[in-house]
Q: What sequence folds into this?
């Protein structure tokens, strides 16, 4: 890893696009694999089109355009790529650091599954907003569990 790259910088680049963090860490093959997976799942899941419809709050179109067989892979690949880049940059050395990432991936996938019906009030969130909200909840729950375990089970 280049000394000018910080753990946070690599984390943020990986959030922007899976594989970029690995490239910054000098893991060219792994980074290229994540970029290829991102492209493959994105294209087959119609993710960019679904994002545009979701940002225009045309959730019905977003639900109809989404290929859920591919979309279900995205949260796990996305979050794993973020965690992997962060870990390779020297982050995640404290016990249970993986928990927020794992719970974000799990809950993000559950958010995809229930996205056609997941609603707040009368507004269905759809295949972009429901997984994002679920992933944020996963990070929050994971941080709480991580703090609890680190506080109560020091090894």
A:
């Amino acid at each position: 890893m280049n000394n000018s790259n910080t753990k946070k910088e690599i984390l943020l680049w990986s959030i922007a696009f899976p594989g970029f963090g690995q490239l910054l860490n000098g893991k060219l093959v792994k980074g290229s694999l994540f970029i290829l997976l991102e492209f493959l799942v994105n294209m087959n899941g119609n993710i960019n089109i679904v994002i545009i419809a979701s940002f225009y709050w045309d959730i019905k179109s977003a639900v109809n355009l989404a290929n859920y067989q591919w979309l279900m892979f995205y949260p796990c690949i996305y979050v794993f790529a973020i965690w992997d880049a962060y870990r390779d940059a020297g982050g995640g050395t404290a016990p249970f650091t993986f928990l927020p990432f794992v719970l974000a991936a799990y809950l993000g996938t559950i958010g995809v599954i229930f996205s056609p019906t997941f609603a707040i009030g009368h507004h269905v969130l759809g295949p972009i907003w429901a997984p994002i909200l679920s992933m944020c909840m996963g990070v929050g729950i994971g941080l709480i569990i991580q703090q609890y375990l680190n506080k109560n089970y020091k090894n």
Remarks:
- Residues 7-152 form one domain.
- The longest strand covers residues 119-120.
- The chain has nine helices and two strands.
